[in-house]
Amino acid sequence: VTWIRRKDLHVLTVGMDTYIGDPRFQAIHLERSNDWALQIRYAQLTDQGLYECQVRPPLPPPNPYFT
């Protein structure tokens, strides 16, 4: 799961990894659940806007390659 801030297309999180220098942003995911959330602690007016959650299907296992 990837969380993106739409106003500037900034990738905020990928899985549980955070890619923004602001520690208020964090992906939340409960074990054995398909539910994800984006947490913004101490939200400010400048945080308002659209946030997009993108879900990519799992990659298929690699095909074995023999030489």
UniProtKB/TrEMBL annotation:
Classification via InterPro entries: Ig-like_dom, Ig-like_dom_sf, Ig-like_fold, Zig-8
Name the Gene3D superfamilies for this protein: Immunoglobulins
* Segments forming domain Ig-like: 1-55
For this protein, the record's SUPFAM superfamilies field holds: Immunoglobulin
The name this protein carries in UniProt is Ig-like domain-containing protein
Question: What does UniProt list as this organism's lineage?
Answer: Eukaryota, Metazoa, Ecdysozoa, Arthropoda, Chelicerata
